[in-house]
Write a structure and sequence with these properties.
Helices cover about 40% and strands about 25% of the residues. It is of the alpha+beta class. Bound molecules: alpha-D-galactopyranose. Alpha-D-galactopyranose (GLA) binds near residues 39 and 172.
Length: about 375
C-alpha cells in the first residue's frame, strides 16, 4: 500500500470519528482462474488474490457500539455488537457486521464495539469479490484486536458464514479463501471439501503473459435468485444420483446422470463434474508445462458455463469471443455469473490491440463501455 493511501485512510478515519485509529488492515479482491460453482459442491477451485485491495481502518471502543463508514457511501452505519442481525437496513455494512457476528459464533471472544472506516480499489459488482475483500480485511483486524485466535482458513469460514447468514447470499468459500491465502505470483488451489490449500506458481510474467480483466459493468448480485437456483439444481442432482455432493461424481457417471435427471438438472451437473476435472488438469498442466498450456481448458470452462450452467450474458460471451479472435491463450467469464467480468490470458504484446478491439465490439453491439485492465497475483490479507 502506498504511504499516501495509508495517510489518506487514517486521515478519513480521524475526520469522521475525531481520534486516531489503532491500525489499518488490508485484504485483496480475487479473480478465479478456473473452477466456477464448484466450491459449494465440495469440489476444486483455483483462484488468486489480485493487486486490488480493501483497507479497513479500525479502533476498538470501550462500549458495544459498532460504527462503520466508507469512502463509497455518505452514511455511517451503526449496530450493537451483541445484537447483529440480517436486515435490509444494513446495506453494504452487512459485510463488516456479518464478520463481527461470525467471529463471535466461532470463538469465545469478549467482543466489544469498534469504529471502522473502509476504502477500496476493488471494483464493485465486477465479480472480483469486493465483498469478500471487505469481510477479510475486517476479519483479520477483529481477529487480532479481539484476540479471537482464528486461523486463516477459519477466518475464511467466518467470511462465508457472514455472507450466508447476515448478507443472505448462499455462496461458497472460494472468495474468502483466495483473499486470505493468496500469495504473490501464485494461485490458490483449494479442495473445498478438505479445505486443504496449495499455492501453485502461475508464471504468467515469465511466459510473457498478462491476465486481463474485462469488466462488462453488467452488475450482478448473489443474493438474487440465479445463484441460489443453480445451487439448488446441484443439490437436487447429487440427491438423485445418491451422493452427498457432486464432488463424488466423475465424467464416467454422466451417462447414468443423463438417464436419471431432467435435461436442465443434467446440464447443471455436467458443468460441475467437468469443471472439477478441468481445475485438476489446469493445475497439473501449469506445473508441468506452464501457463501457455491451459488455454483450451479456460475456453471449455466458458462454454460449459454458457451452455450447461447458463450463467453467462451476451457481454461476457462477446468479450471471450473477441479475446480468442485476437490471440488470447485462454479466456472465460469469472465469478458467479449473470454479469461481472471475463478474464483473458494474453501475450503482453497483444494487450493494446485486444483492448481496442473489445471496446470497439462492445460499442458496435450497443453494450456499455467495459473497463479493461491487467491484474497480477498478490499476497493475501494482512495488517498494513
Ligand atoms: C461467487 C461465490 C463463490 C463461488 C463463485 C462461483 O463468487 O461467492 O463462492 O460460488 O461465485 O464460482
Amino acid at each position: 500500500m502506498s504511504e499516501q493511501l495509508l495517510k489518506k485512510v487514517r486521515h478519513e478515519f480521524t475526520a469522521i470519528y475525531n481520534y486516531e485509529p489503532t491500525g489499518v488492515w488490508s485484504a485483496p479482491g480475487r479473480v478465479n482462474l478456473i473452477g466456477e460453482h464448484t466450491d459449494y459442491n465440495e469440489g476444486f477451485v483455483f483462484p488468486f488474490a489480485i493487486n486490488r485491495s480493501t483497507f479497513a481502518t479500525i479502533s476498538l471502543r470501550a462500549d458495544n457500539l459498532i460504527r462503520v463508514a466508507s469512502s463509497f457511501s455518505p452514511v455511517t452505519h451503526e449496530i450493537d455488537v451483541r445484537n447483529i442481525q440480517k436486515s435490509e437496513e444494513n446495506q453494504w455494512a452487512a459485510y463488516p457486521f456479518g464478520v463481527a457476528w461470525a467471529i463471535q459464533q466461532m470463538s469465545d471472544v469478549q467482543a466489544t464495539g469498534f469504529d471502522c472506516f473502509i476504502e477500496s480499489d476493488v471494483p464493485v459488482g465486477a465479480g472480483l469479490s469486493s465483498s469478500a475483500a471487505i469481510e477479510c480485511a475486517v476479519g483479520v483486524a477483529l481477529n487480532e484486536l479481539w484476540n479471537a485466535g482464528l486461523t486463516k482458513p477459519q477466518l475464511a469460514k467466518a467470511g462465508q458464514l457472514a455472507e450466508n447468514e447476515i448478507v443472505g447470499a448462499p455462496t461458497g468459500i472460494m472468495d474468502q479463501s483466495a483473499s486470505l491465502l493468496g500469495k504473490k505470483d501464485h494461485g490458490v488451489f483449494l479442495d473445498c471439501q478438505s479445505l486443504e490449500a496449495e499455492v501453485v506458481e502461475l508464471g504468467f510474467a515469465k511466459a510473457g503473459l498478462e491476465l486481463l480483466i474485462i469488466d462488462t459493468k453488467v452488475a450482478h448480485r448473489h443474493a438474487d435468485g440465479g445463484y441460489a437456483s443453480r445451487r439448488a439444481a446441484c443439490e437436487l442432482g447429487a440427491k438423485t444420483m445418491g451422493v452427498p455432493s457432486l464432488r463424488y461424481l466423475t465424467s464416467a457417471d454422466l451417462h447414468k446422470a443423463q438417464e436419471l435427471l431432467d435435461d436442465v438438472t443434467f446440464r447443471r451437473v455436467r458443468h460441475v463434474v467437468t469443471e472439477n476435472e478441468r481445475v485438476l488438469k489446469t493445475v497439473e498442466r501449469l506445473k508441468e508445462q506452464g501457463p501457455k498450456s491451459i488455454g483450451d481448458l479456460m475456453y471449455a470452462s466458458h462454454q460449459s458455463m454458457r451452455d450447461d450452467f447458463e450463467i453467462s450474458v451476451d457481454e461476457l460471451d462477446e468479450a471471450v469471443k473477441i479475446a480468442e479472435g485476437f490471440g488470447a491463450i485462454g479466456a472465460r467469464m469469472t465469478g458467479g455469473g449473470f454479469g461481472g467480468a471475463a478474464i483473458a490470458l494474453v501475450p503482453s504484446e497483444l494487450i493494446d490491440q485486444m483492448t481496442v478491439a473489445i471496446k470497439y465490439a462492445f460499442k458496435q453491439g450497443g453494450f456499455i463501455e467495459p473497463n479493461i485492465f491487467a491484474v497480477t497475483a498478490a499476497d493475501g490479507a494482512a495488517r498494513v
